[in-house]
Design goal:
The complex is a heterodimer of chains A (about 325) and B (about 100).
Chain A: H1 3-15, H2 20-27, H3 29-32, H4 51-59, H5 68-92, H6 100-149, H7 155-166, H8 171-179, H9 184-208, H10 210-216, H11 220-229, H12 238-248, H13 250-272, H14 275-297, H15 301-307, H16 309-316
Chain B: H1 2-9, H2 11-24, H3 26-38, H4 50-67, H5 76-86, H6 97-102
The chains are: A mainly alpha (about 325), B mainly alpha (about 100).
Chain lengths: ~325, ~100
């Protein structure tokens, strides 16, 4: 079965347990969370990188004892955790409306995730997930507070909050490692590798999305730029904020941090023997290095690359 | 020399040059977008009013300036298509650009 069919089959197994009244919302969740432009597009087509939904499988590549059943449970738990995290984040920052129906679907997502985690590592995994939920909620709350205040933010605080937001995405991989009987140092390596992947993706996302985030009420690049430039005045419109952010060099700095995170992910994957993941992280590391160079020379480069992407795809095929 | 000349006259290469120049400059990108936004959506290939034609000519002239050489110019249909993608953010769903856009 191909990766995309497998992802959609696993998600379908979750849909099967939903009450009829929530089936439609559950099926259209990628669309309702604003991740795809049409209700018919499934989760397998929502993201560019397979690692986003399938990280646990990539981490245990070639490991003896990693049965299809265990890996399936881990991938299901992981993809549901990621989906729930996207939902919570997008509700918190106002990208999607917090309807009762959406809240009920996301609650079901959490329950199904916990069931899959329980199969992997019993109560310990479920408790770990609850703790991760708490840390992620706190991080999202801190993020909203920072955005609301609009004060300058040092990179260390941004990194701490970003790390907190990733907590929910680490649990399934760690639980799978425990289910396979890995020693603590190896499951810790799984955790740090997953964290590095998540931060690499997050830092880049905060570069390409900063203008949209600013328009919605807050953007990390803007708060980091205020800190970098030590500006007392608070720009009120996007044009002023753009001038500040582009002249501050923070976008290039975030891409440098992304490169570092991918390097750490690559080293972790190599140590775990996860060849395909190491290869992916190596590609991302090189790409981030190129983005960093282009951003340094031409501030705003990566956002323009994103904005011109559909046009370039149409013109160049 | 011949190859350099043929590159300069190759419409595909000219568009590549335009793409690079837009990626390299925030000002150019915004001017490009603004000129596309000024182009009226009511224009068609066969019925382009003088105001629309003037905007298209201005855009073609700016592109010639940005790519630093000959550029055969965009048709009314091309400008309309580009406008719909860049300004109105309508895109070809089969190309799945949202995957690039969300970064994950």
């Amino acid at each position: 079965m191909s990766d995309s069919l497998r992802i959609d089959a696993l998600y379908a197994s979750f849909l099967d347990r939903l009450p009829p009244a929530l089936q439609s919302a559950g099926r259209e969740l990628p669309f309702r969370l604003g991740l795809v432009p049409r209700p018919s597009i499934p989760w397998s087509q929502a993201f560019k990188h397979a690692v986003t939904l399938q990280a646990p499988e990539l981490l245990v590549e070639g490991s003896p004892g990693a049965s299809a059943r265990l890996v399936d449970r881990a991938v299901l738990a992981h993809l549901l955790a990621v989906i729930e995290a996207f939902g919570a984040d997008r509700v918190a920052d106002g990208q999607v409306v917090a309807s009762r129906e959406l809240a009920l679907v996301l609650e079901q997502v959490r329950l199904a995730r916990d069931e899959a985690l329980f199969e992997l590592d019993g109560h310990s995994a479920v408790e770990l997930a609850a703790d991760a939920d708490r840390r992620t909620r706190e991080a999202i709350s801190s993020e909203q507070q920072c955005f609301g205040e609009g004060n300058p933010v040092p990179f260390s605080l941004y990194e701490a909050i970003s790390s907190g937001k990733q907590a929910v995405g680490l649990t399934a991989g760690v639980a799978l490692g425990k289910a396979l009987g890995w020693r603590a140092s190896r499951t810790e390596l799984v955790r740090t590798t997953l964290m590095s992947i998540a931060l690499g993706l997050q830092f880049q996302d905060d570069v390409v999305d900063w203008e949209a985030d600013f328009t919605r009420g807050g953007a990390w690049a803007f708060l980091l730029a205020r800190h970098e430039r030590g500006t007392a005045s608070n720009p009120v419109n996007l044009a002023e904020a753009r001038a500040l952010v582009l002249s501050s060099g923070v976008l290039a700095g975030l891409l440098r941090s992304s490169e570092t995170a991918y390097r750490n992910a690559r080293l972790g994957a190599v140590e775990l023997g996860a060849v395909a993941l190491a290869h992916w992280a190596d590609e991302r590391e090189r790409e981030a290095r190129g983005f960093h160079e282009s951003e340094r020379k031409n501030p705003g480069f990566l956002l323009r690359l994103k904005q011109l992407g559909p046009w370039a795809a149409e013109v160049f095929g | 020399m011949q190859s350099h000349q043929s590159n300069r006259n190759d419409p595909h290469q000219q568009l590549r040059q335009l793409y690079r120049s837009l990626l390299e400059s925030e000002e150019r990108y915004h001017e490009f977008k603004q000129l596309l936004a000024l182009y009226p959506t009511t224009a068609t290939e066969t019925a382009e009013e003088s105001e629309a034609e003037a905007v298209r000519e201005q855009l073609n002239e700016r592109i010639r300036n940005w790519v630093g050489g000959p550029f055969e110019g965009l048709s009314a249909m091309q400008v309309l298509l580009w406008r719909s993608i860049v300004v109105e953010e309508r895109f070809n769903v089969t190309l799945a650009p949202w995957k690039e856009a969300n970064g994950y």
